[in-house]
Specification:
Layout (H helix, E strand, L loop, with lengths): L3 E5 L4 E5 L5 H8 L6 H9 L6 E5 L5 H10 L4 E5 L3 H14 L4 E4 L2 E2 L4 E6 L24 E7 L1 H5 L9 E4 L5 H6 L2 H6 L4 E6 L1 H7 L3 H10 L3 E6 L4 E4 L2 H12 L2 H10 L4 E6 L1
């Protein structure tokens, strides 16, 4: 019996994998992607017909496919994902939907072009990282594959006169490096929306403080909003407020349960210019 099946998200179909213990398992059990239901809503609200969307750290393609269902055939979606196992699933979903304007870029976004290692999680397809740490187990060892590294700025140099409207970023602690590699893109696109994961342990793996990441966002001209899955609402936050919120949530009994299940507390931010 095949490990693959097709799930209909009412707007697009997605090929899922029973061996994927994260996204696919959740959809199989619940019928939807409940973990990021509010983020999905915010992402949808920022999208318009014919826009260009970058999905940085696409995993198995949920946000890329969701974006395509809204921007339509006149838009452009660039789906960056270094894991060959994950990109294989993305390509299956693209074929299933007969989408022609999702470009799969088999690379990790960084602050320089070149090559690196992707350390593969034995548990979750979404947990592969350029850092030797897996949050579900605390392991610092694992299988790795050689991957291509690319900056968003250098990639877009080959896309003549292409403006970018929305960026979704979830790159397992490499968010600061990704920002450093797309400063020209951020400066050029004056009305850019960025939705990014905010994972304190991921920043620690990268050798930076969460505050440094927030300061980089504000220095690039972004106003920051917290996409609060716990409260199911989005609201503006300052750097100090976000730092305080991290501590409060880590002490919250409900979030502590979540932390025990997934390894470390994380959330997402909406950043607008």
């Amino acid at each position: 019996m095949s490990d693959f099946w097709v799930h209909d998200f009412n707007g697009f179909k997605m090929v899922l994998d029973k061996t994927d213990l994260d996204f696919s398992r959740q959809v199989l059990m619940l019928g939807n992607y409940a973990t990021e239901s509010h983020e999905s809503q915010i992402f949808e609200k920022r999208l318009r017909k014919d826009q260009t969307v970058l999905d940085l750290g696409a995993n198995i393609g949920y946000y890329s496919l969701l974006a395509r269902s809204i921007v339509g055939s006149g838009g452009n979606i660039f789906s960056f994902e270094p894991s060959t196992e994950n990109t294989s699933l993305i390509k299956k979903s693209i074929k299933e939907n007969k989408f022609e304007n999702i470009t799969v870029v088999e690379a990790a976004v960084s602050d320089h072009d070149g090559y690196g290692s992707l350390f593969l999680s034995p548990y979750y397809k979404s947990e592969h990282s350029v850092f030797e740490y897996h949050y579900s187990s605390g392991d610092h060892k694992g299988d790795a594959q050689k991957i291509k590294l690319v900056t968003v700025d250098s990639f877009l140099e080959n896309q003549a006169d292409l403006s970018v409207d929305v960026i979704k970023m979830d790159v397992e602690g490499s968010e600061k490096k990704a920002l450093d590699g797309m400063k020209k893109t951020i400066e050029f696109n004056k009305k850019l929306t960025l939705i990014t994961e905010f994972w304190p342990q991921g920043f620690a793996n990268a050798g930076i403080e969460p505050k440094e990441f927030l300061e980089t966002l504000t220095s690039l001209g972004f106003a920051i909003f917290h996409i609060d899955e716990f409260l199911q609402k989005t609201y503006p936050v300052s750097i100090n407020e976000m730092s305080k919120l991290v501590k409060e949530r880590m002490d919250n009994p409900v979030e502590k349960t979540k932390e025990n299940q997934s390894g470390r507390w994380y959330t997402n931010l909406l950043c607008v210019k």
